[in-house]
Amino acid sequence: MVLVEIRWHGRGGQGVWTASNLVAAAAAYGGKYVQSFPAFGPERSGAPVLSFTRISDEPIEVHSMIYEPDIIVILDYTLLSPKIVEGLKPGGIIVSNYAGDVGFVFEKLGIKRGDYRVLLVPASKLALEILRIRATNTAMIGGLLKLDYVVKLENVEKVIRERFSGSLAEKNIALVKRAMEETIEV
Questions:
Q1: Residue 162 has what pLDDT?
Q2: DSSP state, 147?
Q3: Which of 51, 52, 93, 173 could lock onto 8 through a cystine, CB 3.0 to 4.6 A?
Q4: Residue range of the domain that includes 82
């Protein structure tokens, strides 16, 4: 990996920027150079928001939004639309929160099988089961961990324990692990 650029899509209040920050911090613990930043203003809770993560083996000199990401992470499947995949590099990867008919995802994104790698994470289901709330951000990190070159699980565990305390940290780690196990590539 020289440079990996990730664009995160979610809604205000879902922890999009938190997820971006956790992944960047985990990559930094792995000896990488990182950036993590949001693109939102005073949007209300539930409004679409973006966040960005850059991970590199070398110092990062670009300081703009990510317009041509390698990976797109979608925390809320209601945001699925052709606009979401705009700029995604050829052969890019889509990691989406979704459990259901996979044809729905391709239809909503306006893509065909084989256009991109598509990973589906049952994040909402798992978050409700483990955390008892619809906080999908750490579950989506679990889906991202399926791509074993982005960040390492042990570094994600470390940053989660720093960000959250006690049983909340342990529940989020359990959520990350379950999401990683249950993520499927379609």
A1: 97
A2: S
A3: 51
A4: 3-185
